[in-house]
From TrEMBL, chain A:
Protein name, UniProt field: Unannotated protein
Principal location: membrane
Compartments reported by the entry: Cell membrane
Keywords per UniProt: Cell membrane, Membrane, Transmembrane, Transmembrane helix, Transport
Biological process, per Gene Ontology: transmembrane transport
Organism (species): freshwater metagenome
Stated family: Belongs to the binding-protein-dependent transport system permease family. CysTW subfamily.
Membrane topology reported for the UniProt record: Multi-pass membrane protein
TrEMBL record, chain B:
Transmembrane segments: 12-32, 70-91, 103-124, 136-158, 194-217, 237-258
InterPro entries assigned: Bact_Polyamine_Transport, MetI-like, MetI-like_sf
Sequence similarity: Belongs to the binding-protein-dependent transport system permease family. CysTW subfamily.
Keyword field: Cell membrane, Membrane, Transmembrane, Transmembrane helix, Transport
Signal peptide stretch: none
Domain annotation ABC transmembrane type-1: ranges: 66-259
GO biological process terms on file: transmembrane transport
Organism expressing this protein natively: freshwater metagenome
Name this protein carries in UniProt: Unannotated protein
SUPFAM superfamilies (alphabetical): MetI-like
Lineage summary: unclassified sequences, metagenomes, ecological metagenomes
Cellular location(s): Cell membrane
Length: 293, 270
């Protein structure tokens, strides 16, 4: 290499920085923290500030002021309360359904499948994660519409698939976020030492008992880590409800509908998913699962 | 070994097959429908044709949207690559008060729902910056995308730095190289692959993002997902939407595929 290497004394800046770890750390963090705190966190804070403003009922202009009405409406308007509860239940159902699919899949991949099947399945599960969010919503809409794939496939059996409603929203959200649950659960099951299964079977436990009494308790942290994503991403979603839910409304629908009409109400409502997610993260943290994320 | 009865095994295999069908049938139906001759999506497909592909290639709004998507994804990738690498170096090399908080701050933009992130930026742009006489316009979209892309580059570079041997940098300094020279000749070549892999993931993440884009795109500007969204609001799904959706799948999957190949190649070398 033809690079000339000069004496340290000829590099005053390097020599200066070399002795000052704090200054080096500061120069590394200054720009990223300016971006994340100065732009993103500040925006979230300004959103909170806006939530206390109100809209002039006649000119529909945003008025800078202070009112708690927007927050009060979240807890008093019946339609808002029911939407919050519905959204919470949908997010929980998505998380439950993901666990229900992820555990058998993980057991099969980690403990039963041959190595090449396991590798192929690992790719097969990760791949759709990158197929595009909106693309997956269109795809679900396409197969569940009246003349769609599922009604066509079920017709010979005299059955018809569900129409666009809450169950399809739950299925679509599960479709979107399932890999976030499947991958940590699979990794956790893989790490269970095989002799635990031997011990369980020596003591007379059948397959199902072993899964329920040995596997399940060991993968709880992985399930909680995965549920942070399935829960929080479902909670804030509104396009799945818009395109596959018929008239189903979620918290995100209210925020999106109000951002231009009444920004303060949209801002106040944005605090609802933030609050749910923060509470969920705090509960998850108490169980010590976040280190696995 | 986990011993399961034949029935339990059969149930498990059945479930796995069901999950795979559930994951892949919708995507396959969508891709096949992009070759549907009819004007709107249908099943089963009666006549296959390339009509809508030919239409999409020459249709100006789609080309403009594709160009916008590429600009936004490239811009946010560059910003995220730079900022993500800086954070990775800070968290790897130093122990300091608030380290866990910095880590959380990097993850936060992707952990909070897209609608919250989108509304927060939109609110700042239209209720604070605009009244102050500053119109962020097109760049606002790139700022928002870059924010949630940082974590992709950070994760990849940080994981690589953790496995690097710090004595090489010390040796370089002992031989008289300055900080920049050491970085350029010693450190960067060691994490270049992870850097590229992370940047590609950031590109893919930005390319198919839609919720944050809805709230931050200036009026009249469409990215590809945004264009799809507008078409979807019409009653019947036009076949051309399936073409664009297939293109989005391809353009997101190619960088992810390269990124994973790079990461694997790196693991095999060492």
């Amino acid at each position: 290499m033809s690079t000339t290497i000069t004496k340290a004394g000829n590099r005053p800046l390097s020599a200066y920085l070399y002795k000052r770890a704090k200054l080096r750390l500061f120069s590394l963090l200054a720009l990223p923290m300016f971006w994340i705190v100065g732009v993103y966190i500040l925006s979230l804070f300004l959103l909170l500030v806006t939530a206390f403003w109100f809209v002039d009922p006649f000119t529909s202009k945003v008025i800078v002021g202070f009112t708690l009405d927007n927050f009060v409406s979240i807890f008093t308007v019946p339609a808002y309360i029911s939407t919050s509860i519905r959204t919470l239940l949908i997010a929980l159902a998505v998380t439950g359904l993901s666990v229900l699919f992820a555990v058998p899949l993980g057991i099969y991949m980690a403990k039963i499948a041959k190595p090449w099947v396991r590798n192929a399945l690992a790719v097969a599960i990760t791949l759709p994660l990158w197929a595009g969010y909106l693309v997956k919503i269109i795809a679900m809409r396409l197969v569940f519409t009246e003349e769609g794939f599922f009604n066509w496939a079920l017709a010979p059996f005299g059955l018809s698939g569900p129409t666009f409603s809450i169950p399809i929203v739950i299925l679509t959200l599960t479709y979107l976020w399932f890999p976030y649950m499947a991958l940590p659960v699979f990794t956790a099951i893989r790490q269970i030492p095989p002799n635990l299964f031997d011990a369980s079977s020596d003591m007379g436990a059948k397959g199902f008992t072993t899964i329920y009494r040995v596997v399940m308790p060991l993968i709880v942290p992985a399930i909680i880590a995965g549920s942070v994503f399935t829960f929080s991403l479902s909670l804030g979603d509104y396009l799945a409800a818009k395109f596959t839910g018929g008239s189903t409304q979620m918290i995100g629908s209210i925020i999106a509908a109000n951002i231009n009409l009444n920004p303060p109400v949209a801002a106040a409502f944005s605090m609802v998913p933030i609050a749910f997610v923060v509470i969920y993260l705090m509960v998850a943290r108490r169980t010590g699962s976040l280190e696995r994320m | 070994m986990l011993r399961l009865s034949a029935t339990t095994r059969a149930i498990l295999i059945g479930l796995v097959a069901f999950i795979l069908i559930f994951m892949y049938v919708p995507l396959l139906v969508l891709i096949l429908n992009s070759f549907n001759l009819s004007n709107i999506s249908s099943w089963p497909i009666e006549t296959f044709s390339l009509k809508w592909w030919e239409f999409a290639i020459t249709y100006q709004p789609i080309r403009t949207a594709l160009l916008n998507s590429l600009i936004v994804a490239t811009g946010s990738m560059i910003i995220a690559a730079f900022l993500g690498t800086l954070v990775a170096f800070a968290l790897k090399g130093y122990d300091f008060f608030g380290k866990a908080t910095v880590n959380l701050l990097v993850v936060l933009p992707i952990a909070l729902p897209g609608v919250v992130t989108g509304v927060a930026f939109s609110n700042t742009y239209s209720n604070f910056l605009s009244p102050a006489g500053f119109n962020i316009g097109y760049f606002g979209m790139i700022v928002a995308h870059a924010t949630f892309c940082i974590v992709m580059v950070f994760n990849n570079v940080f994981a690589r730095l953790k496995r690097m041997n710090p004595s090489l940098q010390e040796a370089s300094a002992d031989l008289g190289a300055g900080l920049w020279q050491t970085f350029r000749l010693v450190t960067f070549p060691q994490f270049r692959t992870s850097f590229v892999a992370g940047a590609l993931l950031a590109f893919a993440l930005s390319f198919d993002e839609v919720v944050v884009t809805i709230f931050t795109a200036p009026p009249g500007v469409d990215t590809l997902p945004l264009w799809i969204l507008k078409e979807m609001s019409r009653p019947n799904q036009a076949s051309v939407v399936n073409v664009v959706a297939t293109v989005v799948i391809l353009i997101s999957l190619i960088p992810v595929y390269i990124s994973q190949r790079l990461s694997r190649a790196q693991d095999e070398v060492r």
